[in-house]
């Protein structure tokens, strides 16, 4: 799965699991149709809706120089009723 980086587990994303919506961080260059195809192929589910938003990178100071991390994209994927994605492990940092 080239475009999907990892699943997101926040308070909001856990609440959305009850509505059959799953949250993933994806590569910023991936298109909606690519992500939909990868999710349907890898998990064997049917996607009915996708919402995405681009999150800005955070500022990081390296001594006197101010740098920043890369921006990333978050997708909220809604599945058809009756489909679900098996439990996903939380990414460790």
From TrEMBL:
The keyword NAD does not apply. It is found in: Plastid, Chloroplast. Keywords: Chloroplast, Plastid, Ribonucleoprotein, Ribosomal protein, RNA-binding, rRNA-binding. GO terms for cellular component: chloroplast; ribonucleoprotein complex; ribosome. It comes from the Eukaryota. The keyword Translocase does not apply. GO terms for biological process: translation. GO terms for molecular function: mRNA binding; rRNA binding; structural constituent of ribosome. HAMAP family: Ribosomal_uL23_B (MF_01369_B). Belongs to the universal ribosomal protein uL23 family. Part of the 50S ribosomal subunit. Binds to 23S rRNA. This is Large ribosomal subunit protein uL23c. It comes from Chrysobalanus icaco. The lineage of its organism: Eukaryota, Viridiplantae, Streptophyta, Embryophyta, Tracheophyta.
């Amino acid at each position: 799965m080239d475009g999907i980086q990892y699943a997101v587990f926040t308070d909001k994303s856990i609440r959305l699991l009850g509505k059959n919506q799953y949250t993933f961080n994806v590569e910023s260059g991936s298109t909606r149709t690519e992500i939909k195809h990868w999710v349907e192929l890898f998990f064997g589910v049917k996607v009915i809706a996708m919402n995405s938003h681009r999150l800005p990178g955070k500022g990081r100071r390296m001594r006197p120089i101010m740098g920043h991390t890369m921006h990333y994209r978050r997708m909220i994927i809604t599945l058809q009723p009756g489909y679900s994605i098996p439990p996903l492990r939380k990414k460790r940092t």
